[in-house]
Amino acid sequence: MASSRRGRALLGLVLALAAAIPAAAQAPAQCRAGTVYLTIDTGWGREAEQIAAILRRHGVRATLFVANEPTVTGDRSLGPGWAAFWRARAAEGHVFASHTDRHWYFRADAGPGRVRYVSRTREGEEVLDQAGMCRELARPIERLREAAPDATVLPLWRAPGGITTPNAVRMAEACGLHHQGWTANGFLGDELSSDTQPNAALARRALATIRDGEVLVMHWGVRSRRDPYANVLEEAITGLQARGFCFATLPPGGRR
Fold first, then answer.
1. What is the DSSP secondary-structure string of 66-108?
2. For residue 221, which of 44, 62, 70, 102 is within the disulfide window of CB 3.0 to 4.6 Å?
C-alpha cells in the first residue's frame, strides 16, 4: 500500500512538472526553420512515378497544378492512361489546382475583358473572353475529377510559365481563382539545361537559399532535361528536412 501511495505521488509530481513546462518546450523541435510549399506542374511525366515514390517515402504532400499536356506515354496528362496516377496522388493527400487545360501562354491583353492565348509552338491562338477564360481554367479540374472524384481542389490557378497579364489575373479572379506563382528561391531549376545547371549545383542552391514560406516549383519530368531533376530530388528534400523545414500543401488562399 505504501509503495502504491509513493507511486501515485511520484506520478503526480511528474505531471505537475510537465504542466509547468511551456508547451513549446515539450514538443519536438519540428519545423524549426519554417514551412515550405512544394508545387508540381504537370510537365512531361517521364519521372512521375519516381517523384511520387520519393514524396511518399519522406511524407511530403504537394500542391499539384494540372493541365492536359502531352506526355512521355503518348497520351495526355489528364487522359485515361493517367487516371490511376492521379487517383493515387489524391489518396496520398496531395491537393490540386488548375494549370489551364491546353497549357498555352497568355501573351497580351486584347481589350477590356479579353486576353490573347497562344500555344508555345504557335499552332493555335485564341482571344479568350470571360466565359472562355473560366472554361479554360475549369476544364482540367473536370478532367481530374473524372479520374479522382474525391480529389481536394484549391481555388487557385497557375499560368503556364507563370506568365500572366493584368486581364488574365482579373478574369481568373472573376472565375473564383487566385493566381499562384512561386518565389524566386523556390525555382528548383528542373526546366534548365543539365549541361549548364547540373543536379548537384541545383541541390546546393536550394539548400543554401530556400527560406521559410517559400513556394517551390518543379514538374513531373521535363522532356528537354538530359539528367532528370528527379535524380537529386531526394537529396534536396532530405537536406531541407534536416535543416528543420516542414513541407505543407498550399492554403486555399494561396501564398503571396
1. E---B-TTSSBTTSGGGHHHHHHHHHTT-EEEE--SS--EEEE
2. 44
